[in-house]
């Protein structure tokens, strides 16, 4: 393993590169990087600039796939309760909390399908410029509702689509909307079949099974969970799905967020010092056999890179294929509703054809 200090602006970023030796001659090898870095909170243009520096560095190490953490663009609102209080026992948030949401809403990005928004267009251009598949965690704004989403881009500079977090966790439900089954994609790419679930979605067995059913091979897990137990979940998913798991988390210090009183951390005995680590990362890459290929890293902002031998997927599924020979569909099965769920739909009356009008006239007599 090589540890190389690289200059991404500001504090040094560690590039942790795991060279896995020579893969089998007939297999495909993919070099992948998970980015462990902090958002520039409330400053989306600066965060996009930082993302480009990190993508450029990862591409410089030969990476073909770059995965960013949950909510990298727009920010994960760690420590904020948006005026509801720790136990959310009051009905209405305080005005200060509403203003915090306004600023958070302003930092989110629009993700229209056609034409794409300016931030999506820029991210697509980054993927094309550095010739990488890009998986980016964002806070998506649709009207006045926010969604925690992951966007996918190909090396030709095309926006492929998105996954919206199906089930926000705990207080996240106050500020983020719920995704539906229409955005659970798995993309068939030259690198393998790529998809993503976000943070505690990865603990939902049926949702994981939906991805397995789509044949996922490179399973991306952007997260905000830095607890050591998260590693057990990632290892289990790699073994269960017979897939590579790439989990990316932010490494944040208090100073990466606005200073008080503009931004306050709730639930702590005292305001943390600027250098206090509020999220230690833990980003990791795991093989289909449960082997940790790179990470977990708890030391600082990092580019964590490993070579993925896709032949490992076939070898892992020889004795356990969760939706193949190890499935029992006559006993257990899953039905996924992949239709968009909308609160308002409009049905226009179809214009009647002449024949239909004549038929109505005839019947009226």
Automatic annotation (TrEMBL):
- Which SUPFAM superfamilies does the record cross-reference, listed alphabetically? Carbon-nitrogen hydrolase
Name the species this protein comes from: Paspalum notatum var. saurae
- The CN hydrolase domain is annotated at 30-310
Write out the entry's keywords from A to Z.
Answer: Hydrolase
Q: Does the keyword Hydrolase apply?
A: yes
Picking any one GO biological process from the record gives: detoxification of nitrogen compound
For this chain, the family text in UniProt reads: Belongs to the carbon-nitrogen hydrolase superfamily. Nitrilase family.
Question: Would you tell me the protein name for this molecule?
Answer: cyanoalanine nitrilase
Q: Per UniProt, what is one GO molecular function of this protein?
A: nitrile hydratase activity
């Amino acid at each position: 393993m090589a540890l190389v200090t690289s200059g991404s602006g500001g504090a040094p970023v560690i590039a942790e590169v795991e060279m896995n030796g020579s893969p089998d001659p007939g297999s495909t090898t993919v070099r992948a990087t998970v980015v462990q870095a902090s958002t520039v909170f409330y400053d989306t243009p600066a965060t996009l600039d930082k993302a480009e520096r990190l993508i450029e560095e990862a591409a410089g190490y030969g990476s073909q796939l770059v995965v960013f953490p949950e909510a990298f663009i727009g920010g994960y609102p760690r420590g904020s309760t948006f005026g509801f209080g720790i136990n959310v026992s009051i009905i209405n948030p305080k005005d200060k909390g509403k203003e915090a949401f306004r600023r958070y809403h302003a930092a989110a990005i629009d993700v229209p399908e056609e034409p794409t928004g300016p931030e999506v267009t820029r991210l697509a251009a980054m993927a094309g410029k550095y010739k990488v598949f890009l998986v980016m965690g964002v806070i998506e704004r649709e009207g006045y509702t926010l969604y925690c989403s992951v966007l996918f881009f190909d090396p030709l500079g095309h926006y492929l689509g998105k996954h919206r977090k199906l089930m926000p966790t705990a207080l996240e439900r106050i500020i983020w909307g719920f995704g539906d089954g229409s955005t659970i994609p798995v993309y068939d790419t030259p690198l393998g079949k790529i998809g993503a679930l976000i943070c505690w979605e990865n603990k939902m067995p049926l949702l994981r099974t939906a991805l397995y059913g789509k044949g996922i091979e490179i399973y991306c897990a952007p997260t905000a969970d830095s607890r050591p137990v998260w590693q057990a979940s990632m290892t289990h998913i790699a073994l269960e799905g017979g897939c590579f798991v790439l989990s990316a988390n932010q490494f944040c210090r208090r100073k990466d967020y606005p200073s008080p009183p503009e931004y306050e951390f709730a639930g702590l005995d005292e305001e943390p010092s600027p250098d206090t680590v509020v999220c230690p990362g833990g980003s990791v890459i795991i093989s289909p056999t449960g082997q940790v290929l790179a990470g977990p890293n708890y030391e600082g902002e990092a580019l964590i890179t490993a070579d993925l031998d896709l032949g490992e997927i076939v070898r892992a599924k020889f004795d356990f294929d969760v939706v193949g020979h190890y499935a029992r569909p006559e006993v257990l099965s899953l039905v996924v509703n992949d239709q968009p769920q909308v609160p308002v739909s409009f049905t226009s009356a179809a214009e009647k054809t002449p024949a239909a009008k004549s038929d109505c006239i005839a019947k009226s007599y």
